[in-house]
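Lab channel / #folding
Pinned by the channel admin:
"Please post every new chain as: sequence first, then the structure tokens as a reply. Keep commentary short and put observations after the output so the thread stays searchable."

First post following the new format, from NK:
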Amino acid sequence: MLRIGVFGTGHLGKFHLNNWQQIEGTELVGFYDPNDDTAKEVSEKYNIARFLDPTVLMDAVDAVDIVAPTPFHFELCQAAIRKGKHIFVEKPLANTMDEARELLKLVAESKVKLQVGHVERFNPAFQAAQKMNLNPMFIEVHRLAQFNPRGTEVSVILDLMIHDIDIILTLVKSDVKNIYASGIAVMTDTPDIANVRIEFNNGCVANLTSSRISMKKMRKIRLFQKDAYIGIDFLEKKTEVIRLKTPEDTSAFTFDLETPAGVRTIAIDAPPVEDGNAIRMELEAFRDAIGNNTRTQVNEIDGFAAMEVAHQILHKIRHSTPKDE
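Reply from TO:
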């Protein structure tokens, strides 16, 4: 039985508590949260013990689930590594690149397993798309959210766009060549809306737009590759594929299209997307990596790579923003 302690029981932390209580092979030992009102609510609702000292909770478990605000990630991860505890930590991996580099070093020197909470990797729509032969050469991403003060301790890049950065780095097997970025702060002191263009050495180009001041929600990614277009809707959990028809396309809707090269048959298909709880799936994957002694599916190196690109974007935005006279 894998004993789990949760650190941070705010909005997302409560989702983690719900799921840990249902995941087989684990025991939710307790939680740590310095907010007395939140802790009282959690203790009563979930009937689990509150620990007043984070080190005491770490000593009582095999693995920690860190859902605390980003500025606390490094301190909690560092303490857990030194105690030999496996770590699930919400994205981003750390608050600064120096902290992230130190965590990579500490994990490499230890025997602990660390997984970063890039939950969109486990979104059923993305997992359905990954069953296809994906080799995108142009990517377009829109991630829009309505304003919510929660999570604004970091910029929209580290709050929202980092999800898509991780997905893109997973799909594009090439190093980043150039980054162009612009963004502005509207409701907070850090960028709330940003547009980014990432160019890769293999020729792939990704355009990303993220906003946390939108009137509507949207989480879509469009992949364009030779002879195919793949649309993934993370919010609605739908995947759409438009491609040149092949002999294998027996169930797809088709129509003929005249092109300069002649008449082509276009197939439109919606691959089956399994119903699934992405948060539960990522936590179960963490449990399995520990139990099977395998690497976590979103490891510390993945988390570092996404952070590195995100901070390059922030650097570009800072240097492209006109200074007040």
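NK: The chain has a mean pLDDT of 92.
TO: also worth noting, Residues 300-320 form the longest helix (21 residues).
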